[in-house]
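Is this the right way to post structure tokens for a design question? Let me know if I should format differently. Anyway, here goes:
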């Protein structure tokens, strides 16, 4: 992952995820955080970083692809 994506995740994507309403998903987040041993939590954080960053990029690419259809 590029340095820019690491920065974007830390300064934009992660704060958005942390402030989002989790609703029914809150139980599952708590379950993971409580059942994982402390040594595995950094790995979970890295997986979330990768997944959220790739999902963000997919949204950007999809939006760019759809922009031609809105003209």
């Amino acid at each position: 992952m590029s340095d820019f994506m690491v920065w974007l995740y830390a300064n934009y994507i992660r704060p958005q995820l942390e402030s989002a309403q989790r609703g029914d998903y809150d139980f599952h987040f708590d379950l993971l955080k409580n059942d994982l041993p402390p040594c595995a939590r950094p790995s979970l954080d890295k997986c979330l970083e990768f997944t959220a960053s790739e999902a963000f990029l997919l949204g950007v690419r999809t939006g760019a692809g759809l922009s031609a259809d809105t003209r």
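Format looks fine. Someone answered above. Worth noting: The mean pLDDT is 90. The longest helix spans residues 41-67.
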